[in-house]
Hints:
By secondary structure, this protein is mainly alpha-helical. The protein has helices at 2-13, 34-63, 70-78, 80-96, 102-131, 138-142; strands at 18-20, 30-32.
Amino acid sequence: xxxxxxxxxxxxxxxxxxxxxxxxxxxxxxxxxxxxxxxxxxxxxxxxxxxxxxxxxxxxxxxxxxxxxxxxxxxxxxxxxxxxxxxxxxxxxxxxxxxxxxxxxxxxxxxxxxxxxxxxxxxxxxxxxxxxxxxxxxxxxxxxxxx
Length: 147
């Protein structure tokens, strides 16, 4: 929640949340939009309160577990971030590519999507290789070495 408040305070300091001052519309005056500012903070703090523990639990499950299928059980939780990055950058690219920064937005979001896809593929390959690698059996590890 501290990060959310800090983000919106910086945006406010940079000039966002300016709305027309309807008390003096002829001069084109603007005022600070407290309603927009506080509503955005409230919405994103609510999301952070709900999603923070959920993402923390996903992080825990991505590192825990036992048994020979542990890497495959961890995989969905490890793929969470690459999938979210691909989904968000695809949505942002759709909306932001027609704006004034289109020449920068397209390559940046495309690069982020490619890196997220590569990371997801890496997680899948590592989980598969770790799950199906040969393991020593109890009998072979307990046998004395030959003389």
